[in-house]
Amino acid sequence: FPVTICLALPGNLYMLNGFNDHTAGQYIQIFNSSTLPSDGVAPVITFYVTPKSNFSLDYGVYGRYFSSGIVVCNSTTVATKTIGAANCWFDVQFK
After folding, report:
1. Is the pTM of this model over 0.90?
2. What is the Cα 78 distance to its own chain's centre?
3. Could you please report the per-residue DSSP string of 58-70?
């Protein structure tokens, strides 16, 4: 799925695992938000994933705090959200 609203209230992100099934690389973006941000909004975290590959992000035992909520999506652009196609899967651990 191209987007996951993980948590619609303050909390911690502990780990994010996923798979990019696209034949091209794309960006994984994480937003401090309780709703899906509009295209053009800048993420708090962004990282590149290679084509047809697994990816992982681990914030350890204490996690990383998000004051509004946690939204994860794939994007075709690095600096702002341009939501990608449904070719990415996410497994997100949060509390």
Report:
1. yes
2. 12
3. E-TTT-EEESS-E
Is the pLDDT at 49 greater than 70, yes or no? yes
Comparing CA positions, the residue from 53, 70, 52 lying closest to residue 15 is 70
Partners of 17 in the beta sheet? 56, 91
Residues present in the chain in total = 95
Confidence of residue 70 (pLDDT cuts 50, 70, 90): very high
Residue type, 69: G
Average pLDDT of the residues of the chain: 93
Are the C-beta atoms of residues 56 and 16 closer than 8 Å to each other? Answer: yes
pLDDT at 1: 58
Element (H, E) at 40: none
State CA 95 to chain mean position distance.
16
Neighbours of 56 (CB within 10 A): 10
